[in-house]
Amino acid sequence: MATPHSEKAFPVSWDQFHRDARALAWRLSGQGPFRAIVCITRGGLVPAAIVTREIGIRLIDTVCIASYHDYQNQGQLQVIKTIAPDLTASGGEGILVVDDLVDTGKTAKVVRDMLPKAHIATVYAKPQGRPLVDTFVTEVSQDTWIYFPWDMGYSFQPPIREGG
Question: Of 24, 36, 136, 160, which residue is least crowded by CB atoms under 10 Å?
Answer without folding.
Answer: 160
